[in-house]
Amino acid sequence: MSSLESALEPLFEWLSVNPGWAGVIIGLIALTESLALVGLIVPGAVLMFLAGAAVGGSNIAILPMLLWAMAGAIVGDSLSYWLGRHYRDQLRTLPLVRRYPQAMDRAEQLFLRHGGKSVVLGRFIGPVRPVIPAVVGMLGMPPGRFLLANVGSAIGWAPAYLLPGIVFGASLALAMEVMGRLVAWLALGFGGFLLLRWLIPRIDRPLRLLGNRVARAIGRHPPPGDWRRWLHGPHAAVRALRHREGWLWWLALLGVIATLSRAVLAPAPAGWERGAVALFDAQRSESLQAFAWWLTQAGGSLPIALATLALAALLAWQGQARRAVHALLGVLLAVALGLALKHGLGLPRPAALTGTAGWSGAYPSVHAAAIAALVTAWLTLLPLSARGPYRGLMALAGVGVAAVAGSRLVLGVHWPMDLVAGISLGVVLGALPALAATGKRRPPRFPAAVSVSAGVLVLAAAGAAVLDWPDPLDRYPPGSPWPEPASQRLGLAGPAAPFVAVIEASDWQPPEPGWTSPPAWRWQSALRWISPRPDAARLPVLPRWHAGHRPDHVWISVGENARQRWVLRAWQARADDGERLWLIDLERAVIKPGVLLPRLRRYRPDPAQVDALLASPASSRSWMPPKPPLLMTTTRSPG
Known about the structure:
Layout: H1 3-17, H2 19-34, H3 44-58, H4 62-87, H5 95-99, H6 101-114, H7 117-123, H8 132-138, H9 143-170, H10 172-218, H11 228-239, H12 244-265, H13 271-283, H14 286-296, H15 301-317, H16 321-345, H17 366-380, H18 387-410, H19 416-430, H20 432-435, H21 447-467, E1 488-491, E2 494-498, E3 501-504, H22 523-527, E4 553-558, E5 564-574, E6 580-592, E7 599-603, H23 607-614, E8 621-623, E9 631-633
Antiparallel strand pairs: 1-2, 3-6, 3-8, 4-5, 5-6, 6-7, 7-9
C-alpha cells in the first residue's frame, strides 16, 4: 500500500460505514464547482478526483455516485443560468467578477462563436466552466436549448471527472494499467458526441432544403380539376417535407410499408423478437405486470373512444366541425385498419395466445395504433408559435406513446415489430387533421380541446384499471420463473448454440476439481476488460441469457495458458412433471490483447472435451447432437 493510500485509509473506512454521505458530498462538490462565481475559487477538479478516490477505496456502488455528480452539475449550472438571465449586465458589477474579467470575456466570446455548443464545451474548459452558464443566460439563450445542453454535458462530465479518481482509489496498480485506455474511451465518447452534434444539422438542413424545393415545384395548392379534393391530402403530405414533422410522417409511412411487407413475406417473428419477449417474460414480476397493465389501459378501446369523442365534440362546439370529423376519422381508421390486419393476416401472438378467449392476431398492435393516432391528432391541433415548447411537447408525447406501446411487450402479448407497425400506422392516420387542413399558412389551433381530451383519456384509463373492466388483469399471461427444458439456448439475439447436456438432478456441481467461481461483476473487475494485458482468471464472465434468464451457476477453469479458460454455465429448468433439470452450456474462451478492448473468441467443445471436463458418465445425462469444434462468436457484447 502506498503512503497516499495509507493516508486516505481512514476516509475510506468512514465512507464504507456511511455510504449515504458520499453521494451528498459529491453532489455538493459538483454543484459548487458549477455555480457561477463560487466555481472561480473552488478547486472543483481536484475535489472531484479526491472524491472519486474515496469512493474507489471504499467499494461504494459507482452508479449512484455518478448520478449525484450529474444532479449537482445540472443544478449548479441551472442556478448560474438563472442568475445570468435575471441580473443580466449587473453581473459584471459584482466584486468577484471584477477580479476575473477575463473569464467573463472568454465565456462571452465562446458563446458568440459556438452558440449553444458553448455550454457543452465550457463544461470541460476550466477558466470559463463556472461562468459560461451565467453568460449564456445573460445573452438570452432560450431555456429549452440550455436545459438540453446542460443535461447532455453533465452526463459526460460526471464520469470524466469521477472515474479517474475512482480507478486510482481502487488500486494504484489497476489505475496505472487501465488509465490510458480509460482516457481514450472518454475521449472517444466526447468526440462522438461532438461529431453527432456536428453531423445532425448537416443532415437536417439539406433534407429541409430538398423539401422546400419540392414544395415550390408542386405549388401551394393542388392542381385544379375534378380530382382536386382527392389530391389535397397527398399534396399536403408532400409539402410537409419542408418541416421535420413532415419527414417524421413519411418515416412513419415507410415503417408501415416495411413492417407490412415483412408480415406478409416473413410472418414468423425474428430471433431477436423471441429473445426480447422471453426476457420480459422472465423478468415480469406481479408488480411489474400490474404497472404495465395500468399503462396499457391508456391504449384500450374505451379510454381511446371517450377521449376521441371529447376532442371531436369540443372542436365541433368551437365551430370546427370539419376538423372534428377529421380527428375522429383518423383515430377510427387507425383502429379499424389495425383490426382488419389482425384478422386478415392472423399472425400468432407470443405464448400461443392467438385463438384463445379474447385474443386475435398479433400484427399490428391496435393499442399502439390507437394511442399514436390520438396523440398525433393532438399535436396537429397545438400552437406552433413557440418552437422550443412545441418540440418539448412532441418529445413528451413520444415518451407517452412509447410507454403505452411498450407495456404490450412487457405484458408478453405482442412482438416488438407489432408495436413499431402500430405506432407507424397511428402516426400516419392521426395526422389526417393536418393533411386535410385548409390552405391557410397558419391555421388556428385548439389547445383547450386537446387538454380536455387528454384529461378524459387519463381519467378513463384510471377508471378502467380501478374497475378491472373491460380489459381485466387476469387475462394476461403470468411471468415465467423457470426456463422450459430445451435443446438449444435462446439468447437475446435469438436461438444460439445447443446445450452440451441436460442433467437430471435436484442440485448439480461440476464433479471435476479445478472449477471456480469467476470474479463478480463490480466496476473494479469490469475495468479489467479494458486492460492491455488481459488475464482470463481475473476477468468477469460476460453475461449470457437463456429464455430471458441468467444462468443459476457459472464456473471457470483456467489452465496453464492465462489467456484461455473454460466457461461452464448451468440453467435450472423444470420439466412438465416438476422434475428439476440442469441445462449445461460449455465453451472455451480465448482472450487476446486488442486495441481498446480484448479480442474474445468462443469455441464449442467436442464430446471428448465435454467428457473430460464434466467427468461424469454419459449415462447420467441426456446428450444433445454434438457438433465439431467451431467458432461460435467473435463479438464482445453479451449474448
